[in-house]
Design a protein that fits this description.
The complex is a heterodimer of chains A (355) and B (66). Chain A has 355 residues and is mainly α. Chain A is built from 15 helices and no strands. Chain A folds into two domains: 104 residues; 233 residues, Up-down Bundle (Heme Oxygenase, Chain A), CATH 1.20.910. Helices cover 63% and strands 0% of the residues of chain A. Helices cover 8% and strands 17% of the residues of chain B. Chain B has a three-stranded antiparallel beta sheet, with no helix packed on it. The longest helix of chain B has 5 residues. The chains are: A mainly alpha (355), B mainly beta (66).
Chain lengths: 355, 66
Amino acid sequence: MSVTLASPLTTPAGRDVAADLPFRARGPVSAAVLEQLVDGVPTAHTVLADAAVAASADIERDDDLQLALFALYASSYGAFAAFRADLEWDPGLIATRRVIETAFERSLRRSVEVPEQPAPTADAVARALFAMTGADTGPSLSRHLARKATLDQAHEFLVQRTIYTLREADPHSWAIPRLTGRPKAALVEIQSDEYGGGRPDRVHAALFARAIRGSGLDDAYGAYVDAVPAVTLASLNTMSMFGLNRRLLGAIVGHLAAFEMTSSIPNRLYAEGLRRLGFGDDVCEYFDEHVEADAVHEQIAGRDLAGALAEDRPDLLGDILFGAAACLDVDARVGQHMLDAWSRGESSLRGADER
Amino acid sequence: MNDEPVTITAYPDGPLLVRGNVEIRTSEGEEIARTRRTVALCRCGLSTIKPYCDGTHKASGFRTDD
């Protein structure tokens, strides 16, 4: 079935939106959000979101709320043609986004441990960020992939990664027009590399799509949304929330710095593991590329982007550290989820009974 | 690329970042492939992708005293 809606008049309200989307709702809030995003008819999602946020034991692991937020952000990214473009700024949908975001941000600020603030100089901030990202001593997904993971687990790892990496770099690009001077030039220097430096075949998201196809998986965006748990959606939602809200500029910058600083060494281990399991260069190239690229990016992100931003805007230093800490925590949770499931002999993906 | 002067910037406890149009060669004089505008050259000696940096200096505690 076609996923493009010609006009709202041709679309009868109230039908099953599942036909237009590669994924399904996980509860009342996401169902109401998806229905309006596709059909355009206002639904009660804001009231439902208010109630769900109040009742949620842990919004960071709440399937219904994380999927609803994922869909609301996907509307801004233009990730799914079935989501009507004229609803991007619909006041009701924005109200629901704010309800979920407010609770999600509050939860992250409560759960994330932020270190003491260094002096607001590029040098001190870069050193503080490298210290934070280097102190990560938890169990390592990348070491597991390198040495022990089975072929099925490697496929699951790739599936989990599709949610962000098929759109790699996009969440951080929202920050470009909000920066000036040194930090802006630094972010563009990094993003230009992420987007292939003028070569479409070198766009990192395209390299990842090639890796996904090479491993026999589906590279259509959203093909595996139903398969991933809330923590995986929360990882992308964290960066989307930081990127799309101007008031969280410091946080998206800190997020990128932490992301780049925890990338080059793990990617070398991922490539090692994938080669051990017999994957070809078409799959490993993406990971090889990130060993070299992110060793460059982490320097620029730490000193010229985050560090220079803290010098220019000392008021943002707290959020730079918060964004970095949130990146480490939220992504560690995804890795832990996979390792925990595998140590129990289970799949890290959602089973048919959960969908 | 353009006529801007090449810059080589030392990053504390890390690599040298090279920006600008410059050829990087092996000891035999052969050009080393360069796939990005800004590259990081290994300064700690431990990289597995020399002459480029792979981030290993972080794990080894490499310090540059600056």
